[in-house]
Write a structure and sequence with these properties.
Length: 217
């Protein structure tokens, strides 16, 4: 079974997907983390992020894998645990640019489809229901207002010890929404058959319960 959860940055989709996967005993695949990991790796190698041709060679040297522990999932690139590093502001600032490149999306899309092929999965991102898993059994589009999403990211950053202003986060999220929605390749949009879930006034547990009530395993 495949469950697709799409939505803009900080809409709560990843947190919901993780909890939902745990309750259903499904594999959770965070596609956003894959784009963030590639962006982190590109920044580390100091390549020009505005030049797709400089990013492409990085593909040959990337090895993604996910592990689970008591404190949750850990994301690894080339045997380096980048779970927290990919959430840093510099990565968040540049990931949408990297995600606009067609060859980047093709490379990661193939990996994502391969991961979803032979197991029950919950996959979240921006184009899961429209491009990656168009035949998913269930599709949801999880969203919230930019201000609510910025406040959520602000609290997450505080917990991680990352110092960012709320106003800058709000502007950053609005900018990212625009880039994600207007890119030529696999833009952020709701699949026609996806159910819209506005989380602005809902807690994570309420959203999880709502989605669970709609899924028949």
């Amino acid at each position: 079974m495949q469950i697709a959860i799409d939505g803009p940055a900080s809409s709560g989709k990843s947190t919901v997907a993780k909890k939902l996967a745990k309750k259903l005993n499904f594999i959770y695949i965070d596609t956003g983390a894959m784009y963030r990991a590639l962006t982190y790796f590109a920044l580390k190698k100091q390549v020009d992020l505005n030049n797709e041709n400089e990013i492409i060679p990085l593909f040959k040297n990337l090895n993604f894998h996910v592990t689970s522990s008591k404190d949750g999932q850990h994301f690894w690139v080339n045997n380096e645990d980048v779970t927290d590093k990919i959430r840093q502001p510099d990565v968040a600032e540049h990931v949408s640019q990297v995600a606009t490149y067609s060859q980047v999306r093709n490379f990661l899309s193939k990996l994502q489809r391969k991961m979803a092929k032979q197991q029950n999965v919950i996959m979240d991102g921006r184009d899961i229901g429209t491009v990656i898993l168009p035949q998913a059994n269930y599709k949801f589009f999880v969203t919230a207002s930019p201000e609510v999403r910025a406040h959520r990211r602000f609290l997450e950053n505080q917990e991680r010890g990352i110092d960012t202003s709320l106003s800058k986060l709000t502007e950053s999220i609005k900018k990212r929404d625009k880039i994600d929605s207007q890119r030529k390749v696999a833009p952020l949009k709701k699949a026609p058959d996806a159910e819209l879930i506005d989380t602005s006034d809902l807690s994570i547990s309420e959203v999880v319960s709502l989605l669970l009530s709609k899924i028949r395993v």
